[in-house]
Amino acid sequence: MPLLGLRQNLAQFTLLVAVNALVGGTLGQERTVLPLLATNVFHLGLYTSALTYILAFGLSKAAMNYFAGALADRFGRKPTLVAGWLAAIPVPLLLIFGPNWGLIVAANVFLGVSQGLTWSTTVIMKMDLVGPARRGLAMGLNEAAGYLGVALTALATGYLASAYGLRPAPFLVGAAYVALGLGLSVLTVRETRHHVGVEAAAHVAAHAQAHAGLTSRQVFTLTSVRDRSLSAVSQAGMVNNLNDGLAWGLFPVLFASAGLSVGEIGILAAVYPAVWGAGQLVTGAASDRFGRKGLIASGMLVQAIGLGLVAAGTSFGVWLLAAVLLGVGTAMVYPTLLAAIGDVAHPAWRARAVGVYRLWRDGGFAVGALLSGALADLFGIPAAVAVVGALTALSGLVVALRMRPRDHKAR
């Protein structure tokens, strides 16, 4: 019989952490370079047009997040993970050789499909392995690996872009990540679906509705609307990635317009996910001990303060402080939201609940691209940042008022 627990599954867990670092790296190859590619190479004037790649990424990733849970339940975790890596193969090729913006957008459709399958599956597999007692720690380690991969790759590609140009050098790193991630997933990752039955046998429902016999439609409505805690978590995830989409698409353009060099922009693009990634090593475990609700609500407020500094700032120093605050706030929120989903969802439908949550969360990229692009076109980037900051603070208030604290401390 499979054993649950981090120590009992340390080798496989560590391997999955490494795989998710590579998943994050395939996203990080774009964070510094692609906004500059849009303006400097393809000469896209309107912010809304330039952000089409984030819209494409957000929609495709959100959709695949939803299907990833169902696919992982039906066909297994490992086949879903491998399929995600296969979808990533065209991405660096299109980014390097794409002669028009339409092919760059197409690359981000493939990237969104890949990220939705690979990242969702590593989350599900780690939940399978560790059981409920260390779920926050597990999510902290998973998300830390992914976003440190984003940060280090954003920094590296910023250096490569400044030294060798925007193409092709930065995207060769992404090609190497895809090859390594696919090889590890095929050759060394093991299926974890059989761990679910062990946890399900001992599962204590968080409340009366948390039973095993739910259809996919019931899981969707429960996670999206009906359950107070699950719906509060879903909206917070969406707003979190709304402001991350803003940071991804418009921050480099704002920093460049203020005269910062590509190297300085690369540092700022890396600091935010680096603090976010490293901070989750602490916040995930802290949520196991102290509960989820307080970290989520206060983390959204810290993010809002960071966004306010970005809107008001005009110098590298102020923006560096803002990037740190954004990273801290997101670290408080990101693994905690995932752990909160796992707390309420029954093991039998947890993978589908994670998929629904991640559908809403990564739909925030698309909403952020449309909203921030339109606001930036009408009123300028600082105004767009300020509006998103206000929405982030409001989201934290929704969590404080709607989420049940008793469901969100590890059992």
From TrEMBL:
Keywords: Cell membrane, Membrane, Transmembrane, Transmembrane helix, Transport. SUPFAM superfamilies: MFS general substrate transporter. Residues 9-407 form the Major facilitator superfamily (MFS) profile domain. It is found in: Cell membrane. PROSITE patterns: MFS, SUGAR_TRANSPORT_1. Pfam families: MFS_1. Its main location: membrane. Gene3D superfamilies: MFS general substrate transporter like domains. The chain crosses the membrane at residues 44-68, 80-97, 103-124, 145-165, 171-189, 246-275, 295-312, 319-341, 379-401. The keyword Cell membrane applies. It is a multi-pass membrane protein. This is MFS transporter. It comes from Sinomonas terricola. The lineage of its organism: Bacteria, Bacillati, Actinomycetota, Actinomycetes, Micrococcales.
